């Protein structure tokens, strides 16, 4: 099954916990303006706009960014792109957390001073009066949850933010649950959107985190749906990595992804991909979309061709048996609990 770019037409799905609907595949922009180790910009402004155009042409309406992507240039480029379009047709999400000024600890985390300054700055870069979803990019244990939720509630009441989200690397459902319980007790806005890492080989949210989201009707929009590129099929267990490869120089990536267990998962992924006439990346994305509790994966790309390949995953319909085979190819870290 081959879907051409002209045939891609993304549908809307309910952004659980909110009154919004989101594109079934959201577009992540973390490479926009990103400088690599060689000092080169991975995706410049012209290509960024081409990618945004391709996403919009496919019916995509949800753009995910963060105030540190490209040192802020990512948001500026999105703002320039939005300037020629109907802002109300697009859902824009951004994130705040990472330190932005050397030597200034108050320019990091979710303290009230930092949040207020950063929100105004990102709205200015985006050229908009509001963001639809504001995420805290990581959890900040140095800021009291009450201060955090009261500050975020003020953003919603001011109209600068519509909904609140928490983007996390590791499961910390109890922290979100505690903050939401506190917010609801005070009549404040709770977190309604979660953004964890989740894919066929990174399964750490399968436990209390994903179950918590389902039980509380929270939207789950996973990042890294292709396991930092591992699930695209470009790595072979029997071939040495080129010495110049960034992956070859990253022991963290090798240890986390280039394992026999993960390659066994990839064997099953390749088998299902052959059955449905799709690429491994497309099937990996389709598997996520079939997972109970997952709202909409966040996809990214370096080129328009890559983006269109990823977006075509929305047209792949896996059988229950195929979903089960992929799921069972790697045991959940909480299996048996």
From TrEMBL:
<dbReference type="GO" id="GO:0016491">
    <property type="term" value="F:oxidoreductase activity"/>
</dbReference>
<dbReference type="InterPro" id="IPR036812">
    <property type="entry name" value="NAD(P)_OxRdtase_dom_sf"/>
</dbReference>
<dbReference type="Pfam" id="PF00248">
    <property type="entry name" value="Aldo_ket_red"/>
</dbReference>
<dbReference type="InterPro" id="IPR023210">
    <property type="entry name" value="NADP_OxRdtase_dom"/>
</dbReference>
<keyword id="KW-0560">Oxidoreductase</keyword>
<dbReference type="InterPro" id="IPR050523">
    <property type="entry name" value="AKR_Detox_Biosynth"/>
</dbReference>
<dbReference type="GO" id="GO:0005829">
    <property type="term" value="C:cytosol"/>
</dbReference>
<protein>
    <submittedName>
        <fullName>Aldo/keto reductase</fullName>
    </submittedName>
</protein>
<feature type="domain" description="NADP-dependent oxidoreductase">
    <location>
        <begin position="24"/>
        <end position="329"/>
    </location>
</feature>
């Amino acid at each position: 099954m081959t879907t051409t770019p002209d045939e891609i037409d993304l549908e809307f799905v309910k952004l659980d916990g909110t009154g919004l609907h989101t594109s079934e595949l959201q577009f992540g922009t973390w490479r926009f303006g990103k400088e690599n180790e060689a000092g080169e910009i991975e995706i410049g402004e012209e290509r960024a706009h081409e990618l945004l155009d391709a996403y919009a042409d496919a019916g995509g309406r949800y753009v995910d960014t963060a105030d540190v992507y490209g040192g802020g240039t990512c948001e500026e480029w999105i703002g320039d792109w939005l300037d020629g379009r109907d802002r109300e047709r697009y859902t824009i999400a951004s994130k705040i957390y990472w330190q932005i000024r050397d030597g200034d600890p108050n320019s990091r985390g979710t303290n009230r001073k930092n949040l207020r300054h950063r929100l105004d700055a990102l709205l200015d870069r985006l050229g908009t009066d509001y963001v639809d979803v504001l995420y805290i990019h990581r959890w900040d244990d140095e800021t009291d949850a009450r201060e955090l939720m009261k500050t975020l509630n003020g953003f919603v009441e001011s109209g600068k933010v519509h909904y609140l989200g928490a983007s996390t690397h590791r499961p910390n459902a109890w922290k979100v649950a505690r903050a939401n319980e506190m917010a609801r007790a005070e009549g404040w806005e709770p977190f309604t959107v979660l953004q964890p890492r989740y894919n066929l080989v990174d399964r750490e949210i399968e436990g209390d985190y994903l179950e918590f989201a389902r039980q509380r009707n929270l939207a789950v929009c996973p990042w890294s749906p292709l396991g930092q590129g591992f699930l695209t099929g470009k790595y072979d267990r029997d071939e040495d990595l080129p010495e110049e490869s960034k992956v070859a120089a990253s022991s963290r990536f090798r240890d986390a992804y280039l394992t026999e267990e993960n390659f066994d998962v990839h064997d099953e992924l390749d088998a299902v991909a052959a059955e449905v006439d799709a690429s491994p990346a497309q099937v990996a994305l389709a598997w996520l979309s079939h997972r109970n509790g997952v709202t909409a994966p966040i996809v990214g790309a370096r080129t328009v061709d890559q983006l269109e390949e990823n977006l075509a995953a929305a047209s792949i319909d896996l059988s229950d048996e195929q979903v089960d085979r992929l799921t069972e190819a790697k045991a959940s870290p909480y299996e048996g609990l």
